[in-house]
Design a protein that fits this description.
The chain is of the alpha+beta class. The protein has one domain. The protein is built from four helices and ten strands. The longest helix has 20 residues. It is elongated, with a radius of gyration of 29 Å.
């Protein structure tokens, strides 16, 4: 009987000693896992950008057939127009839509706009600038003035305002717009990324 108690006591001591020494510890682990990533065109991406089937959307918005990226072109119209009015404000409504096809709320803003150009969204026929501005450069990241889209929500009426309050050749917005042939950046980020 004494021998049995001794063996049980020694077994308990061995288990307790192994736990105290951390026998399950490790220095590093390398484990391969499968990752699937797809790059989608603008209409199908997590932040979808899609031209509208409206007179303005059909005239000024195109999707590049190769890359599927949204392109805005205000240089001319099919009716013979060749540019913006000097010393004027031009508002072009209903160009494209922005859809949050992700899984969480995002703040939407636009950066890298040339002087004299603003991007806005409105839900009704309000006259800008009473619509919602998307100008992140002017408002700042995380601004309460930028729109927030929950998963599945959209800005369905995105438009542009051009304010050309000068003449060509004086180095102001008219020249900046005339010489701008680049890209603007549409950003979507969660509030904690600000």
């Amino acid at each position: 009987m004494e021998r049995r108690k001794l063996l049980i006591g020694m077994g308990s001591l061995a288990v307790g000693g192994a736990a105290a020494m951390g026998s399950g510890a490790f220095t590093s682990v390398e484990a391969d896992r499968t990752v699937q990533v797809d790059v989608a065109n603008d209409a199908n991406a997590f932040l979808a950008l899609e031209g509208k089937d409206t007179p303005n959307g059909n005239e000024y918005v195109a999707n590049d057939g190769t890359s599927g990226t949204l392109t805005l072109d205000f240089s001319s119209t099919s009716e013979g127009g060749n540019g913006l009015n000097q010393n004027g404000e031009t508002i072009i409504r209903d160009l494209f839509e922005i859809h949050n096809q992700g899984t969480q709320e995002v703040v939407v803003g636009v950066t890298d706009l040339p002087d004299g150009m603003s991007i806005y969204a409105d839900d009704d026929d309000v006259v800008p600038p009473e619509g919602i501005t998307l100008n992140q450069d002017a408002q700042g990241a995380g601004s309460n003035n930028l729109p927030r889209l929950d998963a599945g929500e959209s800005l369905t009426r995105v438009g542009v305002i051009f304010r050309v309050d000068d003449e060509l050749g004086d180095g102001g917005p008219a020249d900046a717009l005339l010489n701008f042939d680049g890209t603007i950046t549409i950003n979507a980020y969660t509030e904690d990324e600000v």
